[in-house]
Amino acid sequence: MKSATRLLLLVPVVLGLGAALVVAVSTGATAAAAPEGDDELGYVVDLEDLDDPGNVAAGEALFRLGCVSCHGPGGVGTPTGPSLVNAGAASAHFYLTTGRMPHHGSPQEQAARKPPVYSPEEIEDLVAYVASLGDGLPIPEVDLGTGHLQEGGDLYRAHCAACHSAAGAGGALSFGQNAPSLEEATPVQIYEAMLIGPGQMPAFGAFTEEEINSIVAYIGELQRLNDPGGMSLGRLGPIPEGFVAIVIGTGGAILAAFLVGRRVHDADEAGQEPTSDREAGR
Amino acid sequence: MGAGSTVHKATPLSRRTARWFDARLGAASFARKALDKVFPDHWSFLLGELALWSLIIVLATGVYLTFFFDASTEEVVYQGSYVPLQGVEMTKAYASALDLSFDVRAGLMMRQIHHWAANVYLATTVVHLMRIYFTGAFRRPRELNWLIGVAMLILSIVNGFVGYSLLDDQLSGTGLRIAYNIAISVPVGGTWLASLFFGGDFPGPDLIERLFVIHILLLPAVIVALVGAHLALVARQRHTQFPGPGRSERNVVGERVWPTFAAKGLAVFLLTTAILSALGGLAQINPVWLYGPYRPAEVSSASQPDWYMGWLDGALRLWPGWEIRAFGFELPTPFYPSVLLPGVTFTLLALWPFLEARFTKDRREHNLLDRPRSRPLRTAFGMSTLAFYTVLFFAGASDVLAATFQTSVNGLFRTFRILLLVAPPVAGFVTYRLCREMVRRDRPGASAEATAVAPAAPDDGAARRREVAPEDAPEHDPASTAGVARR
């Protein structure tokens, strides 16, 4: 009995850990990327400056230091890195501003989003250089004014939710790949991803500009949206909900039953014959 | 209170009211009997109460929701206050769920308490079931109550699923789609059954209306009736108790319902209500506005059932894609994990008291409980079963686990398939050895507890009945809260 009692005292510890986990998961999920200054669309670079020959030269110097080992001289590609000849500014901008390049894992491994390694100026130089290599897509110009929020929602649920989840929390794909969470994606990054189709994602170039702007607007709304019901639980659906229901709800209720129902005097357990408070009844 | 005493002017109103009712209903003797009832006082006997109180919260919040929910598949254009869905076509059912969440006072709070309470209700039910199983409380004469409990569990799982399927959001529609496919996987009658229930092909036009009647009328009525029968049987047969000094197969040692046990019950009720209300107010559950209206062609990743269906989802995921043919027909793959497995599960669960009686050849009445260690085989089998369903349960979360912990979902499937075969025997073996070891260690010390659980000899009655109550004990002493009662 005593060991069982001690075991039960673990319940508050488990509850506390569970609560901490919930808080960690939910705050991590709701912390949206802070827009930097007036660059709310996430451009980082100045589109006007991309054709500047000085930038292209500076970019080439950076490329020779940090990119050439995988992408090859002149960006022609090697067995460990694809050719960048026709990658274009949109692709370079997407991979560099999401921190996915430079990628330090194996080439097969999916590059994860991380803080950009290069400064905004360096990114501008590198994008200018990659764009100069061939004939790729330019960085798109997001115009949220032409987007329609509700239509964007319909398109998002029909074309994006299957992988990124209806709440934008992301999800698993086959063989260790995943569709990343969209919490931190900036409008221009979303637009670029739809054009270039990074990783496993298909390119959605057949969509009109208005449709893409609508989807970008809807994802922005998902990011800004408060969770009116309280902690978001990562917006991951019934799995974290079940975890909370079992560990906190049910664990808490069992703890309540234990605290209310346990014997305070333990007279019976100690083997003492209870006398005065015992009598016959029905 | 003496029934024969006269009423005079000084008698307070409450007492006069009580007498008025007693004169017409004869309720006093029943109430005294009920309030005098002795209830054994182990804390784990309150686990079933947790389920009862959660169910009451589910019912109370559910009534509030029915005032505002409109179970209709009629198409409307949403004009409520949730901006991202304004102007979107949807069914009235989904629109009213959005209204409940954004435009009805306390609606979201009630929705969330209802949902959390349902999840906790089923979890506490399962914990209560585990307590009954591991202490052998299902043995004669309580097999009937075990059957009632199993029926409540099945109906509650079904009603939980029906409940979150009502809202006609993308997640609930995905669940119904899977349910439809499971139904048509049943050989011979499956397509007929599915067509009958869904009112045609999926997603039939009357489906939400039908589910609503099932969810708020049919199943709650049956469940509440079964709860009544469950409690009446506990009262009639008396509660089991753990062995201990002064306790025998023929008596009940514990506290009287009034005031001690009632106070405990009230405390547990209030605490349960507090926990569920806190969850309802602080933690978001089933945010249907994020999922969007149901469109049969769409699906979202991380589409899972609520936790109590998780093991079925896991079984569906782990079952290999074998094509098995019999008599020239293919038995569809979903049939095995989704129809056969739950069928076998609940049949075995329901028959367990009878199977164990046959296996152990022990058909005597048992009012004293076993400690789990004193029945190592039963305990080992129980842990083994739990391990099996726990693996299935986690397999149901495989995609969310893979994304959260950055691992391969395919690797998780392989792992869970192996674990499903390995974990149950290992859990059973370890439990068995632990039980034997604990019993062995108990023996030399010969504490009161351990000796009392030695397999009970057939009760010879007469000798034991003498220790039930001292002869000089008064018939009823309102001041006393503890008691011993004859069975």
What can you see in these coordinates?
The complex is a heterodimer of chains A (282) and B (487). Chain A is an all-alpha fold and 282 residues long. Chain A is built from eleven helices and three strands. Chain A has helices spanning 2-8, 10-30, 53-66, 68-71, 88-97, 120-133, 149-159, 161-164, 187-196, 209-224, 238-261, and strands at 171-172, 178-179, 280-281. In chain A, strands 1-2 form a two-stranded antiparallel sheet. In chain A, helix 3 packs across helix 6. Chain A is elongated, with a radius of gyration of 28 Å. Residues 28-36 and 267-282 of chain A have low confidence and may be disordered. In chain B, the strands form three sheets. In chain B, strands 1-4-7 form a three-stranded antiparallel β-sheet. Chain B has helices at 13-25, 27-36, 47-68, 92-102, 107-134, 143-165, 170-184, 190-198, 207-237, 257-282, 288-291, 310-318, 335-360, 376-395, 398-404, 409-445, 448-452, 462-465, and strands at 38-39, 75-77, 89-91, 251-256, 324-326, 329-331, 482-486. Chain B has 487 residues and is mainly alpha-helical. In chain B, strand 5 and strand 6 form a beta hairpin. Chain B has two domains: 39-293, Cytochrome Bc1 Complex, Chain C (Up-down Bundle), CATH 1.20.810; 370-453 and 466-487, no CATH class. In chain B, helix 3 crosses helix 10. Residues 1-5 and 448-479 of chain B have low confidence and may be disordered. The interface between A and B is large, with 73 and 101 residues.
Reconstruct the topology from this structure.
The complex is a heterodimer of chains A (282) and B (487).
Chain A: H1 2-8, H2 10-30, H3 53-66, H4 68-71, H5 88-97, H6 120-133, H7 149-159, H8 161-164, E1 171-172, E2 178-179, H9 187-196, H10 209-224, H11 238-261, E3 280-281
Antiparallel strand pairs in A: 1-2
Helix pairs in contact in A: 2-11, 3-6, 5-6, 5-9, 7-10, 9-10
Chain B: H1 13-25, H2 27-36, E1 38-39, H3 47-68, E2 75-77, E3 89-91, H4 92-102, H5 107-134, H6 143-165, H7 170-184, H8 190-198, H9 207-237, E4 251-256, H10 257-282, H11 288-291, H12 310-318, E5 324-326, E6 329-331, H13 335-360, H14 376-395, H15 398-404, H16 409-445, H17 448-452, H18 462-465, E7 482-486
Antiparallel strand pairs in B: 1-4, 2-3, 4-7, 5-6
